[in-house]
UniProtKB/TrEMBL annotation:
PANTHER family: ATP-DEPENDENT ZINC METALLOPROTEASE-RELATED. It comes from Arabis alpina (Alpine rock-cress). The chain crosses the membrane at residues 121-141, 147-173. Residues 22-49 are annotated as: Disordered. Keywords: Membrane, Transmembrane, Transmembrane helix. This is Uncharacterized protein. InterPro entries: Peptidase_M41-like. One of its GO terms (biological process) is proteolysis. The keyword Flavoprotein does not apply. GO terms for molecular function: ATP binding; ATP-dependent peptidase activity; metalloendopeptidase activity. Residues 37-49 have a biased composition (Low complexity).
Length: 333
């Protein structure tokens, strides 16, 4: 999830997206592999890093000062250290097809926008199966216990469904907690959030924080200038392209590795929020194309910077600070 503190009504064309994978584009280079140059391959050793002063950057991150973070990284870039920061600032939208996503390596491009029900189904099956089994065993109890206990245990499934209807957030929290039992869950989260972090950094959007905690997974990249444009509903097409690429990065990372994407819903809602706040307004077809293009662009960046993405995943999984994550990006080759 990309966390930009922006409130807005969400009007998501999910049905049409399922058919065409959303958002617009019109660039110059033909498809298959987007014309995205890999970030600088020169690695920076710890010894070389020690020659630079990171106190200004660290202070800005701690203060959640996006302008300060950007200025500090710009200065470090001028000094020759932050070579990957804002190394891919120019995005050029173009018409993009699902076939291009498949050619690039997205495993199931047609289903990228369809939420996976794996975790939900597994949770409900476990609840129903477990309570059913206990009810059968309880039926062997003597006397009235054998009558009432199975009914009480069996009603747990109905209670779970009732809670989900009245307060979906509580049910989703339970499902999220249950999902940790899947062996790929933590890796998916790390890959997803590291993709948001890396693409934002390469494009030149300052990162202020991140979380891999269950139910709170996000990358915080609030930029004060962008926030003002979003709040005022005056996000132009250039900035929309940048935010779209970052928003779709997590989905792209999962799509490159897994047959089914699980964490796309929050990203699609974030993207729709940006679209709703942009000017000029774009049609549903343009929205569908923009999403396809954003997935293609971010997936190209991730493929061209696979080693960096994997190193960042490891750092974030170890709860590295934002500054340590930035150093990891710059040190990886």
């Amino acid at each position: 999830m990309v966390a930009l503190a922006v409130s807005s009504s969400v009007n998501t064309p999910m049905a049409s997206f399922h058919r065409h994978l959303s958002l617009r584009s019109h660039p110059r280079n033909p498809p298959t592999q987007l014309a995205v140059s890999p970030s600088s391959s020169s690695s920076t050793s710890p010894a070389a890093s020690s020659e630079f002063d990171f106190s200004t950057l660290e202070s800005a991150i701690n203060k959640k000062d996006s302008n300060g973070v950007k200025e500090a990284l710009d200065q470090l870039s001028e000094q020759g250290w932050a070579k990957k920061w804002s190394s891919q600032p120019y995005l050029s939208r173009r018409t993009t097809s699902l076939r291009e996503l498949t050619t690039l390596g997205i495993k199931n491009a047609e289903a990228l926008a369809i939420p996976s029900v794996r975790n939900d189904a597994a949770f409900l099956f476990t609840v129903v199966g477990t309570t059913g089994f206990i009810a059968v065993i309880a039926g062997q109890l003597p006397g009235d216990w054998g009558f009432f206990v199975p009914y009480l245990v069996g009603s747990i499934s109905l209670v779970v469904l009732a809670v989900g209807s009245v307060s979906p957030g509580l049910l989703q929290a339970a499902i999220s907690g249950f999902s940790t039992f899947f062996p790929d869950y933590q890796e998916r989260i790390a890959s997803h959030e590291a993709a948001h972090f890396l693409v934002a950094y390469l494009i030149g959007l300052p990162i202020l924080g991140y979380s891999l905690d269950i139910g709170k997974e996000h990358v915080n990249l609030i930029d004060e200038r962008l926030a003002k444009l979003i709040y005022s509903g005056k996000l132009d097409s250039k900035e929309l392209d940048r935010l779209a690429a970052v928003a779709m990065a997590g989905l792209a990372a999962e799509g490159l590795k897994y047959d089914k994407v699980i964490g796309q819903s929050a990203d699609l809602f974030s993207l729709q929020r940006f679209i709703n706040r942009s000017q000029p307004k774009i049609s549903n077809d343009q929205q569908q194309n923009l999403t396809r293009w954003a997935v293609l662009y971010s997936a190209s960046l991730l493929k061209n910077n696979k080693t960096i993405h994997e190193a960042l995943m490891a750092a974030m999984s170890n709860n590295a600070s934002v500054l340590e994550c930035i150093k990891t990006i710059e040190a990886a080759s």
